[in-house]
């Protein structure tokens, strides 16, 4: 649903993890076609895909809120595959099967057992991954890069399924469908506001070494759109104090922007433009979840404390 610029330059898959990414301003890596324009993407395709996803999620929230759990689980399975594939291409052999299966356990355990189930499944996934990496090459030889690959594996487990589980916990709370709608609308408002303000007025880069297209003007646009969107949706959908909407809008812009920058830095380390190619004009599933994942936890926390 968001319309963000990919930050990195695509190169071959044979590279060391953590090597410096090429300069995005270099002529051999940054030129965009006329069809992409300042967006850096195929804008008509991006809008069509984003609108289709948005309408589908609204219909789910209105008519079958629990289907949201399956949507989150499917999206996380694909995103985990994308991330693990990219890491393996960079020479980091994270255990793909335990991460995908464990991620499903983390997502689905929140339905019957709440936060206890989520945390238990996360701990179990980490333990299985520790043993899996230890035995990957057999007991006859010591595993190579065990500490590095275990650290990255735990990071992926916490970054993807653990954070996504809070989107599931959200829908299980009182008026859960309304909470998820407010959360999704807030993220969309932040993305649209940042995109519009960045394209029209962006002149001062916010983090040029990480995401050259992000500007302070874009951040201001995100803040304006998101606060207005949250104020209206919290008041009209959740029938709660409008000040909660203002607070939610501010914190979601901060967490969404940081989530986007985190994925941008990961892609720079891996020297790739997108995590995948599944969504035309957007990249992969993970490229659409970067701001949603940390925002899901923050939104759940704000709702749990203040509603």
UniProtKB/TrEMBL annotation:
Where in or outside the cell it occurs: the entry states: Cell membrane
Region span, Disordered: 1-38
What's its EC? 2.7.7.41
Where does the UniProt annotation place the signal sequence? none
Reaction(s) catalysed by this chain's protein = a 1,2-diacyl-sn-glycero-3-phosphate + CTP + H(+) = a CDP-1,2-diacyl-sn-glycerol + diphosphate
**InterPro entries per the record?**
PC_trans
Residue ranges, compositional bias (Low complexity): 18-31
Q: In which pathway does it act?
A: Phospholipid metabolism; CDP-diacylglycerol biosynthesis; CDP-diacylglycerol from sn-glycerol 3-phosphate: step 3/3; Lipid metabolism
What is this entry's stated membrane topology?
Answer: Multi-pass membrane protein
Question: Please, which domain of life does this record's source organism belong to?
Answer: Bacteria
* Annotated PROSITE patterns: CDS (PS01315)
Provide a Gene Ontology MF annotation, just one. phosphatidate cytidylyltransferase activity
Record keywords, A-Z: Cell membrane, Lipid biosynthesis, Lipid metabolism, Membrane, Nucleotidyltransferase, Phospholipid biosynthesis, Phospholipid metabolism, Transferase, Transmembrane, Transmembrane helix
Q: Where are the transmembrane segments?
A: 45-78, 117-135, 147-172, 178-198, 219-238, 244-262, 289-306
Q: Which PANTHER family match?
A: PHOSPHATIDATE CYTIDYLYLTRANSFERASE
Q: Which family does it belong to?
A: Belongs to the CDS family.
For this entry, the protein name equals Phosphatidate cytidylyltransferase
| Organism name | Rhodococcus sovatensis
């Amino acid at each position: 649903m968001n319309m963000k610029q990919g930050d990195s330059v695509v190169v071959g898959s044979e590279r060391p993890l953590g090597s410096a990414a090429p300069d995005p301003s270099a002529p051999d890596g940054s030129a965009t076609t006329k069809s992409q324009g300042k967006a850096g993407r195929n804008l008509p395709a991006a809008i069509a895909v984003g609108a289709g996803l948005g309408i589908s999620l609204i219909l789910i929230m209105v008519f079958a809120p629990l289907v949201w759990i399956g949507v989150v689980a499917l999206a996380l399975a694909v995103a985990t595959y994308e991330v693990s594939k990219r890491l393996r291409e960079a020479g980091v052999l994270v255990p793909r099967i335990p991460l995908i299966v464990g991620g499903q356990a983390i997502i689905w355990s929140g339905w019957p057992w709440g936060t206890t189930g989520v945390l238990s499944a996360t701990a179990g996934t980490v333990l299985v991954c520790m043993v899996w990496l230890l035995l990957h090459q057999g007991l006859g030889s010591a595993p190579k890069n065990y500490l590095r690959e275990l650290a990255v594996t735990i990071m992926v487990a916490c970054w993807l399924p653990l954070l996504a589980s809070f989107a599931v916990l959200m829908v299980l709370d009182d008026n859960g469908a309304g909470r998820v709608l407010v959360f999704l609308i807030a993220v969309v408002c932040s993305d649209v506001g940042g995109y519009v303000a960045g394209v029209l007025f962006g002149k001062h880069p916010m983090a040029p070494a990480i995401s050259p297209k992000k500007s302070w003007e874009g951040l201001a646009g995100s803040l304006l759109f998101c606060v207005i969107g949250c104020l209206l949706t919290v008041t009209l959908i959740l029938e709660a104090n409008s000040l909660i909407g203002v607070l939610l809008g501010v914190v979601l812009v901060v967490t969404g922007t940081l989530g986007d920058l985190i994925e941008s830095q990961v892609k720079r380390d891996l020297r790739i433009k997108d995590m995948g190619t599944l969504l035309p004009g957007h990249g992969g599933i993970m490229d659409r979840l970067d701001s949603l994942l940390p925002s899901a936890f923050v939104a759940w926390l704000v709702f749990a404390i203040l509603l």
